[in-house]
Amino acid sequence: MALTRIEGSPGAPWELPLQGSLDRIVVESELLADNPLGDPEIRPLWVYRPPGVDRDHPRALPSVYVIQGYFGQVDMWLRRDPFEPNMIERIDAMFSEGDCPDGIIVFVDAWTSYGGSQYLNSSATGRYQDYLCDEVVPFVDASYPTDPSRDQRGIAGKSSGGYGAMVVPMMRPDVFGALASHAGDALFECCYLADFRQAARELRDRFSGSYDVFFEELRATDHFDLDRHAGPLEVYGYAACYSPDPERPGKARLPFDPETGRIVDEVWESWLELDPVRMAPRRADALRSLRRIHLEAGKSDEYYLDLGARALSRELEKLGVEHTFELFEGKHGGIAYRYPRAIRELLLALDG
User: Fold this and answer.
1) Helix/strand/coil for 125
2) Distance between CA 113 and CA 125 in Å, rounded?
3) What span, in angstroms and rounded, lies between the C-alpha atoms of 220 and 107?
4) What pLDDT does residue 256 have?
5) Cβ–Cβ under 8 Å, residues 256 and 262
6) 121 forms bridges with which residues in the sheet?
7) Burial, 285: exposed, middle or buried (Cβ in 10 Å; 0-12, 13-18, 19+)?
8) pLDDT tens across 254-312, in order?
9) In angstroms, rounded to a whole number, what is the distance separating the alpha carbons of residues 160 and 234?
10) How far apart are CA 259 and CA 276, in angstroms?
11) Alpha helices in 155-304, H assignment, sequence order
12) CA-CA distance, 103 to 59, in Å (whole number)?
C-alpha cells in the first residue's frame, strides 16, 4: 500500500474550512514602544470578515472587539478542545448560518510578560487601554468597512477579558457603545482575596518568601509550571495593573504583606477603585449611554465570578441601567460555546 499526498485541507475534525476570511495582521505600536517590561511593540492583530464581506464592502458594518483572559495571547483562539470547533470556527459558523447581522470581529492581543494587562494603562506594564482605543480601533476603521461611530462598536471578553469588556466602556465611552462580559473579574473581595493568602504561602514554601527569588527562577526555567508559577505570577500581574509602583517602573505594590498575608489597606483601596462593581456608580452616565450590556457567568465558577456578575447587575439595577444578566450551568472554563451568541446579541443591538 502507498500513501498518497492530497492537496488542501484535511477537513474535520482537524480543520474546518472557513466560509468567511480571517486576516492575520502584524502591527507596530507607538504607544507600546519602550514599555516598562520591554515587551514587544510588534503585535499580532486578527480581523475576521463574514462570508461575502470584502474590504471594499459597500455598507459600513458594526464591529466587535474580542479580548482575552489572563495568560491569553491571540493565537490561542485556534486552540481546539476535544470534539469542539475552535473560536474562529465558531464565529464563522455563526455568520454562515445567516441569522446574524454582518459585522467585523477584531481579536486583540494585550499580552505582557506578567501574563496580561487587564486592558488598563499602567506604569508597570504599559498603555494597553490606549493601545486598544487609540491605535487598534482607528487602524481597523481605516482598513476595514466598519462604521466609525462608537454606537456601532462593541467589546466582549471572558475573565480578565470580561473585566476589560466592562471597564473599558466605562472609562472610554467615546470608543465603545456595547459590551458583553463572560465571568469578568468583579467584586474583588470575592475573586481576589483568597489568592493573596495562597500566594503568601507559596512564596514562603517555594521561593524564600520573596518575589525576587520567584522571578529569578521564572527567568531561568525552560518550563512554565502552572502549579508552581501561575498563582504568584497572576497575583503580581494584577498588582502591576491595579497598583503599579510609581517610583519603580515595571514593578508593583502588593496589596498584602507577602510574609503574613495581611492586607495592606492603602494598596487594596487602589484595587477597589478599579472594581467594576464600585466603578459603576461613578460611571453611571457612561453605562446608561451603552446600547447593550450583557453579563453572565457559570453558577459553579471557581473564582466566584458569578457573584461578581450578580453584584454588578444589582448595582446596574440601582442605577437604572438596562442590561441582561444570566447564570448558566458551568464553571470558569469550557464556556467558549457561549461567546458567539453574545457577539451576535451585540451585533443585533449595534446594527439596529
Assistant:
1) coil
2) 9
3) 31
4) 98
5) yes
6) 127
7) exposed
8) 999 999 999 999 999 999 999 999 999 999 999 999 999 999 999 999 999 999 999 99
9) 11
10) 29
11) 160-171, 188-191, 193-206, 211-220, 231-242, 265-272, 276-282, 284-288
12) 10
Where does the pLDDT of residue 16 fall: very low under 50, low under 70, confident under 90, or very high at 90 and above?
confident
List pLDDT tens digits, range 179-209.
999 999 999 999 999 999 999 999 999 999 9
Three-state SS for 293-328 is: EEEEEECCCCCCHHHHHHHHHHHHHHHCCCCEEEEE
Helix (H, G, I), strand (E, B) or coil at 163: helix
Instruction: Summarize pLDDT for 66-90 with one digit per residue, the tens.
Output: 999 999 999 999 999 999 999 999 9
* Residues 286, 292, 297, 303, Cα dihedral to 10°: -20
Could you give the residue range(s) of every CATH 3.40.50.1820 domain in the chain? Answer: 21-185+276-351
- Residue 79 burial (CB < 10 Å; 0-12/13-18/19+)? exposed
pLDDT tens digit sequence for 35-62 = 999 999 999 999 999 999 999 999 999 9
CATH for the stretch 21-185+276-351: 3.40.50.1820
- Which amino acid is it at 254? L
Q: What value does the mean pLDDT of the chain take?
A: 97
| Separation between Cα atoms, residue 314 and residue 289, nearest integer Å | 18
Residue 309 C-alpha cell reads as 456578575
Cα 336 to Cα 84: distance, rounded to the nearest angstrom: 10
> Which residue shows C-alpha cell 452616565?
285
Grid cell, residue 343, equals 457577539
Report how far residue 23's alpha carbon sits from residue 29's, in angstroms, rounded to the nearest whole number.
18
> Residue written as cell 464591529?
63
